Structures
1.
Amino acid sequence: MFCYKNFYFFGRGVGCKEHSWNVFGKNIQIPCIGLFTCNSLHECQGIAKRNFDEVGITRYICCECYESKGGHLHRQPGPGKRTVTCIEKNWHINDSTKSLKLLAQWLHHVAQTESEDQKKKILAYMLVPAINFLYTPSEIFPLKYIYCNPKDDDYYNNNDVSESMISNPTKTIPFLFQIPSFFFLEMLMHLNQVKKFIKSELESEWDDVK
């Protein structure tokens, strides 16, 4: 799937139910030795699950790509030796760091390539959890946002409508109906002492001009 090469692999029947997964509605085939002791692919919030149905067309992840993207192949430990998993070896200890960096790369790509409307929409969605980390809402200053169902284009205010009244709550996304200015976000990060550790590209460009 990652290297876009065609592979031929042999299995029992049509596909391999034991090592076939459905991720975002797409059939994914993992090498059998990749899931023996490594849980890099697992059930996740309903977006990834085992594929117990007969599958025809599938996207195969080769062994080389599987390891280069963070998975670990099972290797025989030898006679009399116990199998030590990648979790026990702490090989996944930096997964959270790598995932955050991957999201940062995607956001940088969005900032450079998407339209202004799309940027504002993504920013409005992502600022809800981000601000919740930087600011604790209170009764005096509650965080006001709305629920949006992108498909039906329905909107619900989180302060006026209970979640039980929202149609298809699993398909709604909370987002800010008023996007803070760049100055406001700079101030919020400064108040939380985040700006001690990061320096925006805009500041770097301004320093070059001066």
2.
Amino acid sequence: MNYESIEPVHNTAFKDYETSTRLLLDKLGLKERIKAEKKIIVKPNLVSNAPPPITTDVRFMEAICRYCLEHSKAKVIVAEGSAGCDASLPFEEQGYYKTLKPLGVEVIDIDNERDIELLENPDIPLFKKVYLPRVILDGFLISAAVLKDHTICTTTLSIKNLIGFLPAEHYKGFWRFRKSKAHRYNIHQAAADVATYRKVDLALIDGSIGLKRGHLFGKPFDPPKKILLASFDALAADMAGSEVLGHSSAKIKHLRCFLSNKNKGLLDKSNKALSK
């Protein structure tokens, strides 16, 4: 895929979450980027109530949140809408409430949000209109993804991760998953379009282990990948992550769709709010 980013993709060998995450974020110069932010949203991948590496390890989330709290005065929010269950279940059973709330981090199931906005952009290829929770529409957005394959989309990294922001109230019902209407026509373009409406400001990918041959029932890499990746350019990060997983990024449809959106300047265009 012909794409050269102005933002580098940084990586660090995984030792432990606190040490390696801090080293990676220091390499990025994140403390300078966030020092004036008032709100930081961290989006994990909690597709289901399953342990890592199917989902984002709470220790990775803790290290990210601690760093943000240390280097900014921002309100830090962890927001997710799980596809396979109510997000409160993995928040509870995967240790999110227990670990993050004492830090002062707000942990939000976006499917319980009542303040939903309908956005419109007629230039977007598939989702000309999209419902998104207002709470995630402003602030500095960190997509904290897992390095893993996807049964349909080849990989699911920082861009595909944003499908979880689609409110179940509006996107369930096509099949049993709570975001299933995103699959109705073209999941590849749908993933690209959601990430076009809400741009990722920082892509972080946890490859401490990695998951191959599927996003729900895949196999952990043995030996583990032992790498963390980061970039202020989500597409560049996902291209690099896909290569680590052994895939040519040029063959990953949702990344090609996102690049097309980007080349058309759609990430830079404003979206019209139709309802509040």
3.
Amino acid sequence: MKKRDFLKTSLAAASTVFLPKSIMALGITENKLRTAHIGIGGMGSSDLKSITSHPDVLVVGLCDVDSNAIRKASEIHPNAKTYKDYRVMLKEMANEIDAVIVSTPDHTHAPASIMAMEMDKPVYCQKPLAHHVSEVRAMRKIAEEKNLVTQMGIQVHSFYDYKLATLLIQSGIIGKVSRVRAWSPKNWGYDGLKPIGSDLVPSTLDWNLWLGTAEERPFKENVYHPANWRKLIDFGCGTLGDMGVHIFDTPYNALALDVPNTIKNRCRKPNGFGYPEKNPHPVQKITPIVKKILPPVQKMTPTEPERSQQIQNGANGARTEPEPEPEPPEPEPEPGGNRFGPGTIHTPLTL
């Protein structure tokens, strides 16, 4: 399979299928797509495994600030060059890379992706696309100006269940959709105090490179790396950024929705360090509530909503505020928690 065909089929959800001249002009390893991977621990390890399962992929570069991740990946891809600084890898291997995969913590998504795209490299970047909306807009602008192949990774987006839900909605089988409720039991928040003091940085970790564009601070064990950064404002996007991307994906896609007109949030006051764990509810511990009042679908369809609301609630989808109008009767819940009522979509966590 030629590189052009591979990218068309593998990146079917990309913004464009036009290949930059840097790919078409390659003469070596003509039948292989040469990939460089930035962030190869955690989700990065999963991305590396999935992408390299295609026979026409050749991994040429591996980059991670943690040498433990490099060691594990190198055992599988011994011929790939290894780096701890993605800037060095992209500069040194500019003529050896056909596409770049970014699977770092959220705060490094945009810097790494933008540098690769400025070098005319197609990019596959994990969700959420970036740490700030302004970064997302900058990434989109560069991709469009350079006509690059790009894709954001959303796990299970192509699964049968999501495709079936889209079919049911767009065909009008469930009727006209006027409201969408989405919830997740996850809680990527931290209401505690900002840590004080410092711990010894592991010899396997380049702490300065892990911080990247974030403000310098001492290393604290079990606070940042490897698994707690999603809770923290300077590095992650909380539960909404982690799970909202998944759960809002189907209704946004099926109803052809655009950006919200307004967003309402109810939670504790910001503390400048961690995302809220719970709202001010006196009894039930839940994640922050976010209500999005969405604009009507531009394209007229049988399911076009006059108004659509998305509410991210806490554990088990518990609601904590009264509804302004009565709800239609709903059937008994099916096993697993799925409930579909007339004109309403209930989107539980299905990962």
